[in-house]
Amino acid sequence: FHSGEREEKCIIEDVPSDTLVIGNYKVQRWDTQKHEFLESAPGLGMFVTVTTPTADVLMSKLYGPEGIFSFTSELPGEHIICLQSNSTRFVAFAGSKLRIHLDIRVGEHFLDESVLQAKDKVNEVNLRLEHLLEQIHHVAKEQNYEREREEKFRKTSEETNSNILWWAIVQTLILISIGLWQIKSLRDFFIAKKLV
User: Fold this and answer.
1) What's the Cα-to-Cα distance from 95 to each of 26, 41, 122, rounded to whole Å?
2) Residues 127 and 111 sit within 8 Å (Cβ to Cβ)
3) What is residue 32's three-state secondary structure?
4) Which residues form a coiled coil (predicted)?
């Protein structure tokens, strides 16, 4: 995505609790002479801020023009990941555009390089099995989180439908009572004027 200097861009990521989130980014600055984005942006850094669903700041750190950040979610819900450049230019003069390449991986765990180069095949297979079991545990945790969200949504939908039904019944009763009152008023009026 593109951003201006000193402009904060945020991404919302829905994450279950106790889940590792890894973000990898790279920043490119627009060159006004060449009319293209430079491959590197020397001297430019990024503030990365992560906010929990309860608006607590989970992480706030300054990185370079390229970097990897990671955090583990404490609560389930929407975590807000914000990126902002640390440009020292005044906002009025900071007309440079930035291109930010961002890759966010949720729930990924990486094997050690030493594991991949292990000479003992039994040990390597055992560690790979542990890694697969950890991934299965993560998938099960994510499914439970989605199940809880779906149950909460269903409960909210049922309450809304119930409220709509009662509101429709109340409106119908009000319309019937107003109609009966108008009929009675007109009848009394016609009788008083001796038109009936």
Assistant:
1) 19, 15, 58
2) yes
3) coil
4) none
3-state SS class at 160: helix
Tokens 């991949």 -> residue: 116
**CA 109-126-141 angle, 5° bins:** 40
Count of beta carbons in the 10 Å neighbourhood of residue 38: 14
Paired tokens of 48: 């990365």
DSSP string, 52-82: -TTS-EEEEEEE-SEEEEEEE-SSSEEEEEE
The per-residue pLDDT for range 112-152, each reduced to its tens digit, is: 555 555 556 667 777 888 888 888 888 888 899 899 999 99
The CB density around residue 65, as the number of other CB atoms within 10 Å, is: 20
pTM over 0.85: no
| CA-based nearest residue to 149, from 54, 17, 38 | 17
